[in-house]
Design a protein that fits this description.
Elements lengths: L6 E5 L2 E5 L10 E5 L5 E3 L7 H10 L9 E3 L5 H4 L2 H7 L4 E5 H8 L2 H11 L2 H5 L11 E4 L2 E7 L2 E7 L8 E5 L4 E5 L4 E3 L4 E3 L9 H13 L4 E4 L3 E3 L2 H24 L4 H12 L4 H5 L3 H10 L2 H15 L1
Parallel strand pairs: 4-5, 5-6, 6-7, 11-14
Antiparallel strand pairs: 1-2, 2-3, 3-4, 8-9, 9-10, 10-11, 12-13, 14-15
GO molecular function: hydrolase activity
InterPro entries: Metallo-B-lactamas, NDM-1-like, RibonucZ/Hydroxyglut_hydro, ST1585_MBL-fold
Protein name: MBL fold metallo-hydrolase
């Protein structure tokens, strides 16, 4: 596994950490807000925990210094390392939406369902989510706030659609909005925005309402977990909504033709490929594999089909 630590200062005492999911660079980003009460947003997978620990050490944050760990949602590429990080930083409070809190305290059911989906590659991709002492978990509801010290706050906003336990996080000082997966994935090499619509929670109208909520917050910058900072806020959120609609319409057509999942995915991939520069410009096999692991067409189509079946 490639465990080289990559830390990028983003201004406003915010540092992007490449958390190296499965050893890949540029696939999962965590963020350290180095305020009076240091806060780690999106610790990444269990396998990422040593990488994150090295980055925090480089930035002068020791075991007793980290005040909070916050996740946008409990999918394992975002929250799989929470238990490990909680052990490494025993003073840190863990903040998550109330619909995800019990899974961080007792992750057995979450891990069982993840193993059904990923099989043996689960260990390579994510590792094992360890339980966190429930007394250290703070569950937020539709809105909440994390004290960053010095009057600075990280404000949480419930933003389901990608997952029913998803929150966006707004920094009161910088105007940064941590979007998790609610705005899809951003590919920095090509500036593409692709939807993230995995089963079982994806819902189009809910996701679009969350994007509208993000627009209404008027953030200065979007910080994607996949991957990095984006300053073109309005345009990017509009593109995210457009991509969701395009994919859902394409899957509806495939479903109307009675196609099974694999054939539907092939049709959707063919129909949408010209929307993304990455299709033409990213030719390195490892990079292609990386983005397929992160944002596979089959997984997206399966999530949309599940949503369509639910509404039918």
């Amino acid at each position: 596994m490639d465990t080289e630590t990559t830390v990028t200062p983003l201004g406003g005492d915010v540092y992007e950490i490449d958390t190296r999911m499965a050893g890949y660079a540029g696939i999962t980003a965590g963020y350290l807000i180095l305020s009076d009460r240091p806060c780690l947003v999106e610790p990444g997978t269990a396998g990422s925990a040593p990488v994150v620990q090295r980055a925090l050490t480089e930035l002068g944050v020791g075991p007793a210094d980290l005040a909070s760990v916050v996740v946008t949602h409990i999918h394992l590429d975002h929250a799989g390392g929470v238990g490990d990080i909680a052990e490494m930083y025993p003073q840190a409070e863990v903040v998550v939406h109330e619909k995800g809190a019990r899974h961080l305290a007792a992750p057995e059911r979450l891990m069982r369902s993840a193993r059904m989906v990923y099989g043996d590659v689960l260990d390579t991709l994510f590792g094992e989510l360890k339980p966190t002492d429930a007394a250290r978990i703070r569950a937020v509801q539709d809105t909440g706030a994390i004290d960053l010290g010095g009057g600075r706050r990280l404000e949480s906003y419930y933003s389901p659609g990608h997952a029913k336990h998803h929150v966006g996080l707004m920094d009161s000082q910088t105007g940064d909005l941590y979007v998790g997966d609610a705005a899809g994935i951003y590919v920095p090499e090509t500036a593409d925005v692709r939807p993230a619509t995995p089963p079982p929670d994806f819902d189009l109208e809910t996701a679009l309402r969350s994007l509208a909520k993000f627009q209404s917050l008027q953030p200065q910058r979007l910080l994607f977990a996949h991957y990095g900072p984006v300053s073109e806020v309005t345009d990017t959120l509009e593109r995210s909504a457009e991509e969701l609609r395009v994919w859902v319409d394409a899957v509806k057509d495939a479903r109307d033709e009675g196609l099974d999942l694999d054939h539907a995915a092939a049709m959707v991939q063919e129909r949408t490929k010209d929307r993304y520069r990455m299709t033409k410009e990213i030719t390195d096999p490892e990079a292609i594999e990386k983005y397929e692991i992160l944002n596979g067409t089959v997984s997206n189509v399966a999530g949309i089909m599940h949503a369509l079946d639910r509404h039918a």
